[in-house]
Design goal:
Length: 106
């Protein structure tokens, strides 16, 4: 996944040998959001994109493999949390995001 100078998000699809087989664009990332990670959040083919705004709003861009759906909000978290990992921690075929509180130790 990358972003063009015009703001469009580009997804590079690869085949089983790791060669690029297609490049698609779901369009522009919603204003105020950054990519927070990727993972399979709905148990369908392909990874989805987890987005986050500076105030902590979370959204998921479901890809459904090659088809792209509009992002939708899933909740909020404090800006003091950062992405600590994404993975299938329960062995059910679906990914989960773990957020970790960031604090300074003086």
């Amino acid at each position: 996944m990358s972003r063009s100078s015009g703001g469009d998000v580009l997804i590079w699809h690869t085949n089983g040998n790791g060669a690029v087989s297609a490049i698609t664009s779901p369009g522009q990332r919603p204003d105020g959001f950054t990519s927070f990670g990727t993972g399979n959040f709905n148990s369908t083919l392909g990874d989805d994109i987890l987005l986050r705004s500076a105030p902590g709003q979370l959204a998921i861009w479901l890809t459904g493999g090659i088809g792209i759906n509009p992002p939708f909000a899933i909740g909020n978290t404090s800006p003091d949390y950062h992405n600590a990992g994404i993975g299938d921690f329960t062995d059910d075929g679906q990914n989960y995001a773990i957020a970790e509180h960031h604090f300074d130790v003086v």
